[in-house]
Amino acid sequence: MAHSGLICRITAHLTKKKRFYSICALSFILLLLGVCQFGKWGAERLEVNHTSIQALPEIGPLKIAFFSDVHGNPALLERIVELIAQQEPNLIVFGGDLVYAEHRFYRTRRYIESFKQLQSIAPTFAILGNHDYEKLDQVQRVYQAAGVKLLRNESIEWVSPSGNKLIIAGVGDYNEGDEKPTDCLLPSDKETLPTLLLSHDPESRVALKDFHWDLMLSGHTHGGQLGIPFTDTYISFRSDMPAGLFPYENGKQIFVTRGTGAILGMRFFCYPEINIITIPAQKK
Predict the structure, then answer these.
(1) What is the DSSP string of 39-105?
(2) Section 24-46 average pLDDT
């Protein structure tokens, strides 16, 4: 009888423990699902953010629509086109990573149509991101079919709405070892026109610092896809310039976008963005 009572007490004790562990496991699963749902919501909260930058003397007033890192999402690109059209920019720049290397790149017709629409809004330029090299032929075909100029270690002279000339230069991706600044930039000690530089990864600044440019536009970091609430501070393991405007050597400036897509489809307090960059008219 004594043994029977002991067994009953142990069984009851184990049952309580099982219930406790079951409740803990269920709570953890519900919490995890909630976090994932919040992250997916954050990844879909596409913002249009405005920034005024004192750069490129004599070029302003100029309104640039800048976006990056679509990562193989044609529906997202269509949303981007609609939002950019509402802003009526003078110039449109795509900062690379049209595709996601680990995914099949399909429905290229939709990408072509979207970039055609962008080109009809304003002159549109693009550069390559590191993921684009895995699907290079298709990516290049999209831009060619859409009439968008791909700048791969190339520069052009572009006349701004003020009537003054601006050099727009784009380098190949730094992570792929494809940057060739000598093909599209002059040394920093040479006199030249105001220069807008497009480079996918802001870390490329080290390789580009001895060349002449005034403002560099970059993406790649996604802002780390993780931000500290209410601070406009972002955590990235890719760069110490995760998102925003940063001063650099000899008066150069670097603007890094948080990008529009999301690896793994989640963002936390680091929402995707289209950037409308205004270059004000030079004060006389």
Answers:
(1) HHHHHH--EEEEEE---STTT-SEEEEEE----S-HHHHHHHHHHHHHH--SEEEE-S--S-TTS--
(2) 77
